[in-house]
Every structure is written in C-alpha cells, then in structure tokens.
Write the structure tokens for this entry.
Amino acid sequence: MGVWMMSRLLGMVGVLTLIAAMGAERPNIVFIIADDMNWNDCGAYGNQAVRTPNIDRLAREGMRFEHAYLTANSCSPSRASIITGRYPHNTGAEQLHWPLPSASVTFVEKLKRAGYYTAAAGKWHLGDGVRDRFDDVFEASMAGFILPTGEGDAPPRMIAKAPSGCEAWVPTLRNRPKDRPFFLWLAALDPHREYEEGALDPPHRAEDVVVPPHLPDTPEVREDLRLYYDEIGRLDQYVGRVVAELDRQGVSERTLILFITDNGRPFPRDKTSLYDGGIRTPWIVKWPDRVAAGAVTESLVSAVDIAPTFLEAAGVAPVATFAGLSFLPVLDDPEVSVRDYVFAEDHWHDYEDHGRSIGTQRYKLIRNSYPDLAATPSADAGRSLTWQSMLMLKAEGRLTQAQNACFRAPRPEFEFYDLLNDPHELRNLIDVPEQQALVETLKHELGLWAERTGDYLPTVRTPDEFDRVTGEPDHSVRVRPRRSKHEMFGTYGKY
C-alpha cells in the first residue's frame, strides 16, 4: 500500500475517532443540482450579467472551487455517476435515460442506514431501481409535482405545474423528521430547455448577456441566452429560500450545502461536449461549522469525489466501489490537493458520440473516439434560436472557425488545450512540438485510467434519434440497441 493511500486511510480513521470522542453532531447535508447551467454563468464565477444573489452569497459565506469537473457531459449519466461514486461506464447507466440498475450501491442508502433522513425533491432522472434508497422522493414531472403536506395524515397533493422543478424543496425541508440528521437531494429543472417567457420578473435584458466566442453574436442568440439567464435567476431564488429555511430552523451552522450543476449550458459546443462548457461545474460549499467564509481553492475535484466526501463528513465508513477521493481536507485547507487529474466521458445523447478527456488545473486532452462524426449539440439545442441563427450564418459563410466546429467532420482524434492561456478552448495545440511531452504524459495517464476502471469502446454504435441539422425526431429509430457488457467490450487501441 502506498504512503499516500495509507495516509488517507489513517486520516479517515482519525476523523471517525474524533467524531466519536467529541460526540460531535453529524452535519445535515443539502445537495443542490442545477440542470444544464454553465460553470461560470453566475456572479460568483464572474458573469455579472446573470442575477444570482443567493448563489453568490453561498460563495461569500463558503468555499468556491475553481477547478471542479463532472464525469459526464449529459444529465442522467452525470447524476448516476454522482450518486454511485463511479465513472459513467461503470454505472450501467452511461447513456441518456438509461436507469441505474437496482443492484447499484449509492451513498444515499449508507446515510440512511446510519440514521439520516434521506429525501429527493425535483428532477429525478435515475430510474426506478434506486428510489428506495430515499425515505421520500418528490419528483417533478410533466404532469406536475407531488408536494408533501406535513399536515397530519393528509396525503401529498399534486400541483398543476412545476416549471422550475424546485417547488418541493422548502416543503420537504420543513416536513422532515426533526429528530434525525437529514440528507436532501434537491434537483432543479432550471435552466434546462425548452425556454418560455415569464421565468423571472423582471427579466434579464438581451443587451446585457455575455455571448461566448463559440456562438455568433446575433439578436436570436442574445434572446436565447436571455431566456436561459432568466431560468438561472429563478433557480437562484429557490436556492435563497432553502438557505432562509435552514436559518429559520436554526440548523444552518451544522448543515453542509454543496451547489453544482449536472452539465454545462444547453447550447452548441457546450452541453454534450468535453470542453469546459460541457463538463466544468460551479462547486460551492457552505458549512459554517467547518468552512471559512470567502475561501477559494484551486484544488481539482471530480463529481466522483462527492460520495466519499458526504460519507466521511457523516462519519460513515467508505465504500469499496467508490472511485473518488474525499475532498474534506480541502475544506480545512484550500491549499491542499487531493488529485492530480480529472476524467470525463462522452456517450450517446440524442446522437451517437463517444469520447474521453483528462484534465489538470491548466491543461486538457480530449480523445474523440468517433472523429468521423460532427460534434452535433443536443437535440433541444438543435431546435433553439441559437442553432437556427447558426444554420443561417453557415449557409452565408459567416461563421468563425470556432462557431463552425459543431458542423465539421471529420474532427481531430485528439485535442489539447492550455486552459490558462486559452480558456475558451479555441486553439488545438495537439501538433505543437513544444507540447508533445505533456501530450504523451496525458495520453499515458488516460490509458492507465481506462485500464484501471475497465473502460471500453462499444462494438456497436447507437443510432441517432434526431435529425442532426433540424433537431427534429427521426421516426425511423424506434429502439436504441444496447449490448450486454461482455458483448460491448472492444478496445481503444494504444493511447
């Protein structure tokens, strides 16, 4: 056993011993997940055009992580990875809408067995196999939202609409058992498409939005971003209501709040990509009993680190199936590093694709397994005002090279970016001679990770379910084929 691993195990034993010796009260845990929100589309991460006073307050009163990454660029695979503490290809739910197998081990049942009240409220997207890991699940759906009443034996009631997905957050918090620590999985629908007027009053202004360079600056794109900003603003209001309810109940000091998103903004070259717009996440921890207000850390963290961290915070023994590392040491000292690399995956999401990435604080290497395919955005983005504007500009030959990337095929097999000097990932340095030593190191590390985690390339591609130009359903596709895992194992070849 290595010195580093031994020190981590001894650290865990020390934490458990300290909790037992001091009789310390276990923290409540509130996990808040935005749906399709970019990592830097809030004031705390530099976008002052988006009105997010409550998220910004979380950052002022807690710790902001500057280099936090998800393991997937798509919503349900990302959530499956978080709850199991495993990389997507190990969950059995790596493609969009695949449910988690009922045999999955999650951190939630471990908290439940340790005496925590566990509840999920909002977007579910995990299938039926793991619902019983929670004491209560209040799921947002197209039909409406089941709200707990907390009024004696009165049954829960259905409300007509749940546009934000956050409507049950505060009722769930209010009606929890008061004699147990609690874990709440609070998952928004905001700011997922489709967008409508009226999400925020007053609305954002189109002239104020920040248009990233990979999108054209047209009135249609600005309007699309404005509506997206409004849904972030609506989400922010619910974040504020949760914090206010914790304050009202007098439990804020001993409650760990973690705020993240499940993947990046639902625009071309963001969601479903392995660029930062697809896999980087806001990551804010507020825990007054332990975390210094206003702290900022450059430490790398991955979504697979959430499960072991929550268990360690609760004084629960770690689980052998978890692939991540607890980031509790970072909460005590922002200068501490717990990992050298973060890894992320790209799988089928409306359209066939497959890719992997490895990142450090400064550099990122992307492997495109199917370089013959264009990097088509998700189908909802393909029906957007933005995509329609891009189609028009493409026909006129007016897109920049970066804006044209979603149409280009073939793509490079490998992409390499210096995130410090090129934060928008517009200059692929894969062939720059001075970078070859680092490129080869990252290829090697990516290969070791693939071997260590049993990664594989499917032997059969999954057909597209939508037209790649219009984003409309392709009715010739009825069922997406899925091979059993032993049939799916292929080879990446040599990295």
In short: The longest strand covers residues 295-302. Residues 1-23, 481-495 have pLDDT under 50 and may be disordered. The two ends are 27 Å apart (CA to CA). The chain has 13 helices and 14 strands.
